[in-house]
Design a protein that fits this description.
Helix content: 10-25%
Number of helices: 10
Strand order of the largest sheet: 3-2-1-7-19
Radius of gyration: 23 Å
Shape: globular
Structural class: alpha/beta
Number of strands: 26
Low-confidence stretches: none
Mean pLDDT: 93
Largest sheet: 5 strands, parallel
Strand content: 25-35%
Length: 420
């Protein structure tokens, strides 16, 4: 059996481990357009911060490819998939045949067509190790550089944290009226923004850049902001073009619970896909590393199984939007969707923050926002994933003090693996 995997990040690595759990002998090739051993993309900000080295960023150990008998083709871009011939074409003119193919092509930064953006020499996106290297070089050329970040989402704010000690001024701009608008409510965003401002990060929200000059941004209101480096962190778009006219695509590549696309023997996983969010019942893009790994592992197992009769067949059917992140020591976890009635706990002291908002309806927990005290978040996550009926637990206790004692004795046995 010949397995080809396009992509060397979490979904691709999950697929390798899924395949090898079933098939120890089949040929596996990973194709990546990057030059590196697999690494954890969320750690690029910590590389700039000096918290990790490139060695520590590796998603798997040095022996991963040899131990799993995987051929890694670096600096190789796939330009075409021929689904009928079961063959892919590379930018260097070579071709690779496959029996089973996984597209784990991830996503790419979205850069709006700003007027004058082509005149900015010191600009960079912030999604890859190459981006981190480029930004590091920019900051090394000028001590106390002024940095302008376009985008107050997760990527832009992690970048701000990573360079805070190396920049004299960091300004973050966003069209939205609050930071992290896709994952935080108004009160939660205010808490995090104030925390970031205490670290010297400045914000211009509900603002947009009209045009760029080489080292300055002109805003719609006429204000001019100078910078030495520009970081474009507006958003990302799933890389779906390889399967255009081959498989069903909406915003992302559409897959079923087995990670199969609509094309025979072609699977997809990770940030390029659109999957079912069990918390809302909607199909959506959920670009999250844990989801990418689990979906890739599911794809790998099913690629190796070969038939519905295979006992090892697996489904990836409990995905939810989820983010676990921290900024300058303030941690937060969010999950699910924010619909229904709410339970709110908002306690802020001089040295401690505890912001908790739970969303529930129809006897189910739909989502949550935790800032500061994120302990026991796993209990809330489990309730969402499993769609646990809230009348089967002590929900009032769960709201105040999440713990196993809020579950029935039978449920505790299951969760603890046989507690008596």
């Amino acid at each position: 059996m010949k397995y080809v995997i396009i992509g060397n990040s979490a979904a691709g690595i999950g697929a390798v481990e899924g395949i090898r759990s079933v098939d120890k002998q089949g040929e596996i090739k990973i194709i990546t357009d990057e030059a590196y051993h697999t690494y954890s993309r969320p750690l690029i900000s910590y590389l700039l911060l000096g918290k990790v080295t490139e060695e520590k960023m590796k998603y798997r150990g040095d022996g991963f490819y040899s131990d799993n008998n995987v051929t890694l083709l670096k600096n190789s871009t796939v330009i075409k998939i021929d689904a009928e011939k079961k063959q892919i074409s590379l930018c260097n003119g070579n071709t690779e045949s496959y029996d089973k193919l996984l597209v784990a092509s991830g996503s790419s930064p979205f850069v709006p067509p700003f007027e004058g953006i082509e005149n900015v020499k010191n600009k960079v996106t912030f999604m890859s190790l190459d981006d981190a290297h480029k930004l590091d070089e920019m900051l090394s050329k000028k001590a106390g550089a002024k940095v302008l970040i376009i985008g107050a989402g997760l990527i832009g704010l992690k970048c701000a944290e990573g360079i805070q000690k190396r920049a004299s001024k960091i300004t973050v701009v966003d069209l939205a009226p609050r930071i992290l608008s896709s994952i935080l409510d108004e009160d939660g965003a205010k808490i995090v923004q104030e925390h970031l401002e205490k670290q010297g990060v400045e914000f211009k929200l509900a603002s947009s850049v009209k045009k760029f000059e080489e080292n300055s941004a002109i805003f719609e209101g006429g204000e001019k902001v100078d910078f030495d480096a520009l970081v474009l962190a507006v958003g990302v778009r799933p890389n779906t073009s390889l399967l255009k006219d081959i498989a069903n695509i909406d915003r992302g590549i559409i897959v079923n619970g087995k990670s199969e696309t609509s094309a025979k023997d072609i699977y997809a996983a990770g940030d390029c896909t659109q999957t079912l969010d069990v918390s809302s019942g909607q199909n959506k893009i959920m670009a999250l590393l844990p989801n990418a790994y689990m979906q890739g592992e599911c794809a790998g197992i099913n690629m190796a199984c070969g038939s519905d009769a295979c006992a090892a067949q697996k489904s990836f059917d409990k995905a939810i939007p989820m983010n676990a992140i921290g900024f300058f020591g303030l941690h937060m976890i969010t999950a699910g969707n924010y619909t229904g009635e709410t339970f709110l706990k908002n306690e802020q002291g001089s040295d401690q923050i505890c912001y908790k908002k739970l969303f529930y309806s129809d006897n189910k927990l739909n989502g949550f926002i935790l800032i500061g005290d994120v302990e026991k978040a796993g209990i809330y996550t489990s309730l969402i994933r499993e769609r646990t009926p809230l009348d089967s637990i002590d929900f009032d206790l769960i709201c105040e003090k999440p713990g196993l004692m809020a579950f029935t004795k039978e449920d505790r046995k299951i969760k603890l693996g046989g507690e008596r």
